Amino acid sequence: MISVNEAKAILQKLELSRNVQVLPISSAQGFFLAKPISSQLDVPSFDNSAMDGYAFSWEEGVSQLELVGEAAAGAAELPKLGKGQAIRIFTGAPMPSGADSVIMQEKVERNGNRIRFNPEDAVSGNHVRYRGTQCKKGDIIAEAGAKITPGLVSLLASVGVKEVPVYRVPKVAVIITGNEIQDLGNKLQAGQIYNANGPALDSWLRKLQVDEIQAIKVPDQKEAVVETLARALDQNDLVIFTGGISVGDYDFVKNAVEENQVEQLFYKLKQRPGKPLYAGQKEGKVIFALPGNPGSVLSCF
């Protein structure tokens, strides 16, 4: 018998078989990256203005300039600035050739095609976002194992990444054992109880974005439990039993894992409820066996 923390440490060290799939970034929310992702371009990809204002070539003491045009975000053609010239520029617009600084519009007085400002408000290189200052092409922007969030999706899109390799969500079999278990919607017979654990585990798994869930109900018969586990391991990545893991005359899950050559990781924890919790592995697949009591199931899960 081990502690809950010891059990967690064992599980965290497992080397699991992980299948990889490629998804569009818009469909990858909640998945985990299987490989590091690199930027496909410099960000920003061109020098641009960080402010609405006026772009010009800075010279010490200069405070009056000729206005020769305008640059908005997305502008493809811009005039080349000469000495003593400036261009009206907006946030995100590319810097024109010959300009190296931007002064905020709030600091400028305009009279026709002339502008003037206090030289102390003009700083060389001010309010310019230079190419590659956020990241360079080839820089790692997200490490393997990172969870994909809306923020990361935005970052990926901004550097030209359209698709990402992610770990496929595991296929899970939930096996409910017990002759007394009756499905919802059917009439209870003498000695029967409704299947509470199946719907509860289904809800928990779907909350974790698992959508390939095989629900199986098996009677308290040794051969049936052994064969059901063999099929479940063949078709799924994770198997979860409820019930049948204690030491009663009709508890056959321990026999099933042994006859299917499952390696035991631990059995029984120092916790209540949920003491008879079992964990094992076989060929990169994991098997959990939880007690049958619904409170114990939720505690163990």
TrEMBL record:
Pathway: Cofactor biosynthesis; molybdopterin biosynthesis. Transmembrane segments: none annotated. It holds the Pfam family MoeA_N. Residues 173-301 form the MoaB/Mog domain. GO terms for biological process: Mo-molybdopterin cofactor biosynthetic process. Signal peptide: none annotated. SMART domains: MoCF_biosynth (SM00852). GO terms for molecular function: metal ion binding; molybdopterin molybdotransferase activity. It comes from the Bacteria. It is an enzyme of class 2 (transferase). Keywords: Magnesium, Metal-binding, Molybdenum, Molybdenum cofactor biosynthesis, Transferase. CDD domains: MoeA. GO terms for cellular component: cytosol. Its EC number is 2.10.1.1. NCBIfam families: molyb_syn (TIGR00177). Catalyzes the insertion of molybdate into adenylated molybdopterin with the concomitant release of AMP. This is Molybdopterin molybdenumtransferase. It comes from Algoriphagus marincola HL-49. The lineage of its organism: Bacteria, Pseudomonadati, Bacteroidota, Cytophagia, Cytophagales.
